[in-house]
Specification:
single chain; 162 residues; alpha+beta; six-stranded mixed beta sheet; three-stranded antiparallel beta sheet
Length: 162
Amino acid sequence: MPRYIYDHEVTITDNDGIFVDVEFLETREALRELEPRRLFPITGLDGFITLLDSEGSEQAIIRNIYDLPDAAREVIERSLEEYYMIPRIQRFVKMAENFDIWMWTVETDRGVYTFEIRNHNTAIKPLFDGRVLIKDANDNRYEIPDVRQLDKQSQRMILPNL
């Protein structure tokens, strides 16, 4: 049965970018090469982070990363960022439609991408907090962290599609 990790009872250190090592301070028990994963990857970005061993077995659960000491929280955030690596759209450069297939060129935090959207109803998912998730025709995922923070031209391009 996995343990729940609360505030200052552990030390979490980086182990090769994606993996982390956890040491429980009271018992001095150490768990090595754990992979942090979100139990709710779309809606629960900061809570319910599972730590999996090399066999994929759940060893511990972090209820909320903001309950951790700052250094441990930063290690978990970096590991999750490396694992999920979803390009974040910063602006829309170009949009064109041809026979109900949309071609979008976007500028992201990882460079410029051009991709197709075939079905707006299933490809674009607005979330309650202003984020928008987009899945292209090749199942690649993109995120708009806050649609309200896009420049006016980008908002004009995306908002009619939401």
